[in-house]
């Protein structure tokens, strides 16, 4: 036992030294981590994203000068007018009247040196302000259905008036705008109107007037190739985790996709996608401006405005927004095939989304058509359905869409021009007399 104490001391020293070595090793240890690769999120688009002004479009421009009406539905003049709007400095917006009568509205439209822009739905001023250079911070929480541009004093003062009319709520807001280049404005916006179609005002007792083309409408029946937007693209857009999405074929023309919380159905006969996320349903109020922007951003984020879709309706209580298909400046309607994008907003996200998954391709056939003049249509409507004449909000030329198969079993979209009466966002075909020519193809 002579060396026990020395052995203990040596063992203790060894343990202390070993502890120091381990500590130094831990301090200086640098593990070789693998480089973390960023997850690439696939961007899925069904079309090109659009600017807000391409979706908030009027369906008609109506000019009043020299006691005559001239109108157009062409997108080209509208695009030019919107370009001018962006360059104007708008100021002094104020409420002028909150009990506007129908007769006063008619008078405002028929006043000389004015352009009236007709919209299908109430446009929130706080949304439309994105298309203007507005010099004031506070924008009224209001909306309009017609925008009247009064250029009576532009040549003397470089100033125009903007009259925002809400035909439903009978409100009238006025603002002023400075025009930076009045000569260019007159040359590019006003003077071309002399070559547009002549329109006539159809007055109705104690009602707003209707405005229709004076002469017969020269149009055409078109046949287009139908192009399909693959439903799988919408599956990638609408579901967050594709690994858990299950597919169920219900019939040869219907299938369902679900991840347990949301459902997408595909109607292959009519090319309709219908998506619903039930848990997002909400009855909490949503301001009109926010509802419009949320629905626009949702569709636009995946390029969902794949054709010329324009705002046509909003139901604030139901949180729904609809966008109508237009072709060559005319609205497109159908008894069977859906021609609208419909969204219902929920609690901070989409609740329901319904849309077509076809696109109109190249035109390969054109058949001349001549529709009756607006005056003839009005006269016929007065005689045959005076109630509809009194109740209708608008008389327009549009296309009726049908589908057919070619001899090669190719899907064809047929657009037939017709007169329509529009009331509460619902359309009624007026079946005008049509005079056609021989069919011929377009190269």
Question: What does this molecule look like?
Answer:
The chain has helices at 4-28, 75-87, 102-110, 125-128, 154-157, 182-190, 231-238, 288-301, 374-384, 386-391; strands at residues 60-65, 68-72, 89-97, 114-124, 133-134, 143-150, 159-166, 171-178, 197-204, 207-213, 217-228, 246-251, 254-258, 263-267, 272-276, 308-315, 320-327, 330-333, 340-345, 350-356, 358-371, 394-405, 411-423, 426-429, 434-436. It contains 10 helices and 25 strands. The strands form 2 sheets. The chain has a 15-stranded mixed sheet that branches. The protein has a 10-stranded mixed sheet with strand order 5-3-8-7-6-4-1-2-9-10, sandwiched between helices. The chain has 3 domains: 52-213, no CATH class; 217-223 and 361-436, no CATH class; 231-356, YycH protein, domain 2 (TATA-Binding Protein). The radius of gyration is 31 Å and the shape is extended. It starts with a helix and ends in a 7-residue tail after the last strand. A hairpin with a 2-residue loop joins strand 12 and strand 13. With 443 residues, the chain is α+β, with helices and mostly antiparallel strands. InterPro entries: YycH (IPR009996), YycH/YycI_2 (IPR042274). Residues 5-429 form the Regulatory protein YycH domain. The chain crosses the membrane at residues 9-29. Keywords: Membrane, Transmembrane, Transmembrane helix. This is Regulatory protein YycH domain-containing protein.
């Amino acid at each position: 036992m002579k060396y026990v104490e020395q052995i203990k001391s040596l063992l203790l020293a060894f343990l202390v030294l070993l502890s120091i070595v381990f500590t130094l090793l831990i301090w200086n240890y640098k593990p070789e981590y693998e480089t973390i690769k960023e997850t690439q999120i696939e961007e899925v688009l069904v079309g090109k994203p659009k600017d807000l002004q391409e979706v908030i479009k009027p369906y008609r421009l109506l000019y009043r000068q020299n006691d005559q009406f001239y109108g157009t539905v062409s997108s080209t003049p509208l695009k030019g007018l919107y370009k001018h709007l962006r360059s104007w400095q708008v100021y002094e917006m104020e409420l002028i009247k909150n009990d506007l009568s129908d007769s006063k509205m008619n008078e405002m439209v028929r006043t000389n040196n004015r352009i009236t822009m007709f919209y299908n739905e109430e446009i929130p001023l706080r949304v439309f302000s994105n298309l203007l250079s507005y010099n004031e911070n506070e924008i009224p929480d209001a909306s309009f259905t017609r925008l009247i541009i009064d250029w009576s004093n532009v040549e003397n003062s470089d100033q125009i008036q903007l009259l925002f009319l809400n035909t439903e709520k009978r409100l009238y807001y006025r603002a002023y705008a400075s025009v930076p280049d009045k000569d260019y404005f007159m040359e590019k916006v006003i003077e071309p109107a002399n070559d547009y179609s002549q329109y006539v005002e159809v007055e109705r007792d104690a009602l707003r007037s209707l405005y229709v083309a004076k002469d017969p409408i020269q149009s055409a029946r078109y046949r287009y190739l139908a192009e399909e937007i693959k439903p799988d693209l919408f599956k990638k857009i609408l579901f967050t985790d594709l690994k858990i999405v299950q597919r169920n074929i219900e019939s040869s023309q219907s299938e369902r996709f679900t991840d347990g919380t949301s459902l997408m159905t595909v109607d292959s006969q009519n090319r309709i996608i219908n998506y619903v996320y039930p848990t997002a349903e909400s009855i909490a109020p949503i301001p009109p401006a926010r509802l419009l922007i949320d629905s626009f951003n949702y569709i636009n984020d995946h390029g969902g405005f794949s054709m010329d879709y324009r705002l046509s309706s909003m139901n604030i209580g139901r949180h729904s927004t609809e966008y109508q298909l237009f072709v060559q400046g005319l609205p497109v309607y159908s008894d069977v095939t859906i021609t609208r994008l419909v969204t219902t907003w929920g609690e901070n996200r989409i609740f329901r989304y319904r849309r077509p998954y076809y696109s109109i391709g190249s035109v390969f056939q054109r058949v001349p058509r001549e529709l009756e003049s607006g005056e003839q249509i009005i006269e016929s409507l007065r005689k045959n359905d005076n109630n509809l004449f009194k109740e209708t909000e608008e008389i327009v030329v549009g296309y009726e869409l049908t589908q057919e198969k070619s001899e090669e079993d190719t899907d064809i979209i047929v657009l037939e021009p017709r007169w329509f009466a529009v009331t509460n966002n619902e359309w009624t075909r007026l079946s005008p007399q049509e005079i056609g020519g021989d069919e011929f193809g377009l190269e």
